[in-house]
Amino acid sequence: MQHRFRRLLQKNLLMLTLPGVLVLASLLLLLGQVSRLEHFQTEHLPDTKDARDFFLAGQRNVEVQLDDLRSTGFIYKSGDSEEGEYFYRIDDDAMEIVLLKKKTAAQLITGKRDNNTYLVRLIKDDVTAGYIEQQYAEALGMSRAEFSGLVSSYIFDEVAYPRLRILLLQIVMVGLAVILGFLLLYVILATAFPVLNHEAQVLRRYGKVGRYIRKLDREMDTKLKMHQDNVIVTENFLIVSYLSHIDVVRIDDIKYLSKHVEKRRRRMGRPITVYRFTASNGEDLYFEADFFDEGVINDVIYYMRGEPLLEYEEMSEQERAQEEAMMQDAIAEERSREAEADLEKELFEQFDRDELDGLR
Questions:
Q1: CB 191 within 8 A of CB 16
Q2: Tens digit of pLDDT for each residue in 93-104?
Q3: How remote is the C-alpha of 25 from its chain's centroid?
Q4: Residue 251 and residue 257: Cα distance in Å, rounded?
Q5: 118-144 b/e with 16+ CB inside 10 Å = b?
Q6: Burial tier of 29 (Cβ tally within 10 Å: 0-12, 13-18, 19+)
Q7: Are 248 and 296 in contact (CB under 8 A)?
Q8: For 309-330, how does the pLDDT look when each residue is reduced to its tens digit (9 = 90+)?
Q9: Ramachandran region of residue 193, left (φ > 0), alpha (ψ -120 to 50) or beta?
Q10: Exposed (0-12), middle (13-18) or buried (19+): which is 309, by Cβ within 10 Å?
């Protein structure tokens, strides 16, 4: 079987994106089921006479055409705030009550509303219907018995229609679908063109990513020295692949190799021994990897150096932190010296230019 660096990239890509794809797909499926609930479903009500049948069938959110609406003069309040206004329409000697939002009511009264289709929630409110019935009976000088049954208790309530809830659900579903689509598109493109893989950008420090992917493919195919678990050593590169990322180190860049042993205590169970491999060049390279098998770390060092490195140092967490801090200080000091050298060079160049200008 031929080894390929691009296969490592593809495997890493799938391991990283598969959980996200499954989570997004599961959320979309769940929200799709939620959208089927009565509170999020809106059906078209062809005739207001069918309001009772829709209500008894459990369908409360409807889109309905309401013509010839007239104000009842009654205001709907929630606390001290006016939320809407009651209107009515006459259909086959029955008075149907419609509660519109304050904004919709204003548009209707001023003639600025250009359609008569409303999104409302069917409410059965005998108290409100009875009160309006009584008020109209008194205004017309009629008895309550003569007016009884004229006002329908099924109210078309725009205020209670869960417009915001439905809109938010739709936005979330569309957003999740877009994210899932982009994620799947990225997986397809990064599989077809490994240079687009985010993890391949670790090669940018060496040069063009595409060229080094091909170089690593050839190295792993024809110059492979060691491949054990997640560690690969070729003639020129050390490759360590993890679930979350891939580390690639050019062996020629390494000046110092070391092996340390640490005792770690698990939360539950016996302590374990961890062998830490470190590589650096004293400047901008510092790499470390942990192994749980001393034989593996010895093999890695052997195939990188051509000779074994059998000694190791026992280090505590504090000592390891101090070593890393010293390494970072060395790198910072080296960069500071380079910056001072650049500044000194610039000053000398400026001095030479000033001398030249003086001679002229």
A1: no
A2: 788 889 999 999
A3: 13
A4: 10
A5: bebbbbeeeebbeebbeebbeeeeeee
A6: exposed
A7: no
A8: 544 444 445 555 666 666 667 6
A9: beta
A10: middle
Buried b (16+ CB within 10 A) or exposed e, 270-284: eeeeebbbbbbeeee
How far apart, in whole angstroms, are the C-alpha atoms of residue 285 and residue 308? 22
Cβ(60)–Cβ(38) under 8 Å?
yes
Tokens of 339: 């910056």
Tens of pLDDT, residue by residue over 214-245, are 988 888 888 888 888 888 898 888 898 888 78
Cα distance from N-terminal residue to C-terminal residue, the chain: 73
The full length of the chain comes to 360
CA distance 76 to 160: 12
What pLDDT is attached to residue 315? Answer: 46
**pLDDT digit string (tens) for 290-300?**
888 888 888 88
Please compute the mean of the pLDDT values over residues 303-310 and round it to a whole number. 66
Interhelix angle for 209-222 vs 5-34, to 10°?
A: 120
Structure tokens at 112: 């600025």
Burial class of residue 47 (count of CB atoms within 10 Å of its CB; 0-12, 13-18, 19+):
exposed
Q: What is the 3-state secondary structure (H, E, C) of the chain?
A: CCCCHHHHHHHHHHHHHHHHHHHHHHHHHHHHHHCCCHHHCCEEECCHHHHHHHHHCCCCEEEEECCCCEEEEEEEEECCEEEEEEEEEEECCEEEEEEEEHHHHHHHHHCCCCCCEEEEEEEECHHHHHHHHHHHHHHCCCCHHHHCCCECCEEEECCCCCHHHHHHHHHHHHHHHHHHHHHHHHHHHHHHCHHHCHHHHHHHHCCCHHHHHHHHHHHHHHCEEEEECCEEEECCEEEEECCCCEEEEEHHHCCEEEEEEEEECCCCCCCEEEEEEEEECCCCCEEEEEECCHHHHHHHHHHHHCCCCCCCEECCHHHHHHHHHHHHHHHHHHHHHHHHHHHHHHHHHHHHHHHHHHHC
Query: What is the C-alpha R_g of the chain?
Result: 38
